[in-house]
Amino acid sequence: MRMIAMREPGSRGARPVRALTAHFLAPAVAGSLHLSVAVPSARRRASTCAVTGRQDGARVLVGSAVFGPGRPGPAYDGRPSLAVPGPQDCGLLDSPLELSPFAQNLEIRPATDAQPLGGGEKAELVAWVRFVDGRALDAEAVAILTDVLPPGLYARWRTACPIPTAELTVHFTDALDAGPAEGWALVRIRTEQAGNGWALDESEVRSAEGRLLALARQARVVQDAPGHQNPSGHQHQTLPGHQTPPGH
């Protein structure tokens, strides 16, 4: 899915994407995805594009994106930067392909003691990530990185359970207005709340220099069964691992 690579049809210049939302209606399979785009609003300050994705004629996602030019205004970043070792001081993630086949495209170096399926106390994972093909961190790449780590709950669990995404929203900062970032990105994902078979994850992506590139939130469906541990201590079944992140 390349929704973040869009520019609103008919625009005269490249207008940066400011927000992206996707609702996943059905599992998408590897292969072509036909996107149809409509422009319900095209204005000087902001434009909105609506997108429908189909495979074999069936709708698998609907979404929207907001585009808008930069302009003079106040600057503020109220989120504290993450105090972690640099990527050169962090070891490679063990067996990332067991968590997601897409991991073959990435180098992932956990930046804290928390590991996927490590049975920790906090539902949070932090890692340095870069693409093995050396691609720049443009809006498309950054959107992928917001969902590239396993769900935050995996930091607490010891066995995997499917937690597919029902809805994902990404907000991009002005840090990409001047062009893409390069090299490593620092990615954090954490589960803010979970209960009644749903989980709310928040993620952030920063450049190697510490600039905030994007924030994302997503609603996930937690598929439970006996034998698996959830945050409240109840047991659930052990099932195979993590979904491929949306966008691949």
UniProtKB/TrEMBL annotation:
<dbReference type="InterPro" id="IPR029069">
    <property type="entry name" value="HotDog_dom_sf"/>
</dbReference>
<feature type="compositionally biased region" description="Polar residues">
    <location>
        <begin position="229"/>
        <end position="241"/>
    </location>
</feature>
<feature type="region of interest" description="Disordered">
    <location>
        <begin position="224"/>
        <end position="248"/>
    </location>
</feature>
<dbReference type="InterPro" id="IPR052389">
    <property type="entry name" value="Sec_Metab_Biosynth-Assoc"/>
</dbReference>
<dbReference type="InterPro" id="IPR042171">
    <property type="entry name" value="Acyl-CoA_hotdog"/>
</dbReference>
<protein>
    <submittedName>
        <fullName>Thioesterase family protein</fullName>
    </submittedName>
</protein>
<dbReference type="InterPro" id="IPR049450">
    <property type="entry name" value="ACOT8-like_C"/>
</dbReference>
<feature type="domain" description="Acyl-CoA thioesterase-like N-terminal HotDog">
    <location>
        <begin position="14"/>
        <end position="68"/>
    </location>
</feature>
<dbReference type="InterPro" id="IPR049449">
    <property type="entry name" value="TesB_ACOT8-like_N"/>
</dbReference>
<dbReference type="Pfam" id="PF13622">
    <property type="entry name" value="4HBT_3"/>
</dbReference>
<feature type="domain" description="Acyl-CoA thioesterase-like C-terminal">
    <location>
        <begin position="87"/>
        <end position="220"/>
    </location>
</feature>
<dbReference type="Pfam" id="PF20789">
    <property type="entry name" value="4HBT_3C"/>
</dbReference>
